[in-house]
Amino acid sequence: TTAVSLTGVTKVYGRGDNAVLALDGVSLDVAAGEFVCLVGASGCGKSTLLNLVAGLDQVSSGTVRLAGQPAGPAAGRAVDRDAGQPGDRTAGKAGDHADEPNGGGSLDLPPIRPGFMFQEPALFPWLTVADNIGVPLKLRGLSRAARRTRVAELLETVHLTEFGRRRPHELSGGMRQRVALARTLALDTPVLLMDEPFGALDAMTRDLLHDELERIWSQRRLSVLFVTHNVREAARLADRIVLLSSRPGRIIHETRVDVPRPRR
Ligand code: ADP
Ligand code: ADP
Hints:
This protein is of the alpha/beta class. It has eight helices and ten strands. The chain has helices at residues 46-54, 73-81, 88-96, 129-139, 144-157, 173-185, 203-220, 231-237, and strands spanning 2-13, 20-31, 35-39, 61-66, 69-70, 115-117, 191-195, 223-227, 240-245, 250-256. The longest helix is centred in the last third of the chain and has 18 residues, at 203-220. The two termini are 20 Å apart. The site of one adenosine-5'-diphosphate (ADP) has 11 residues, from helix 4 and helix 5. Residues 4-264 form the ABC transporter domain.
């Protein structure tokens, strides 16, 4: 099955003389459980592509689908208003958009909300590590006891069990990024979007996080779209590397990485 599907996606920012063609007819499928790295020079539209998949911005033309369902601000709004809980109210909200070209098709299923990680982990500084990880669980309405169990599991997943009561500023950059990863995993989403998540880390810390991410990715069969400038990082992690060119943003090359790696 296809987890993420972009078909003929074009994105134009601005109008008239100021218009920027950020993406020009990009088509890309990410299979369930596939790890795809997007590489390319600055300004070639990597972040734009992730934002469109996340539903943070709208395509100018073309379609973006997540497990066959339309992605986009409409789907995102429906999730936010319903605190991420699937159910009849979501179906009602989706119905509001049934007249839009991208709004149909999600009448029965709740929209998929991808997890999104950035270079900056954007943790709440006043919350403990455990409470940061628990935020999505609280939004989903889990009981305090259920949250406690789940947060303890997630702390263990990212090897931070001893640090649940600490505040983000007491941790190293790599540990903070692991907290952000755990918080993203708390969404229980099948799709992970990562925009240079380890770009600010030193090489050794990045290596450790590659090992952790790879372990978690294969255990959970996540579909990952991972943006990086670092070709070595792409070769380390990816099943497939997709190269974008700029002006306009287009896919100019794709490579499947066939090198067998440990732990897979
Ligand atoms: P990358 O992530 O590969 O560096 P971006 O997706 O950030 O590329 O940007 C692609 C192009 O779109 C660039 O030319 C950039 O200047 C332009 N762009 C990105 N966001 C905006 C915006 N909000 N308004 C206008 N132009 C933008
Ligand atoms: P509330 O946020 O409703 O005041 P708590 O303060 O009891 O509830 O817990 C906040 C969140 O963090 C919950 O998601 C809880 O499960 C979790 N949590 C807090 N401390 C820990 C810890 N040391 N280990 C595991 N989970 C924790």
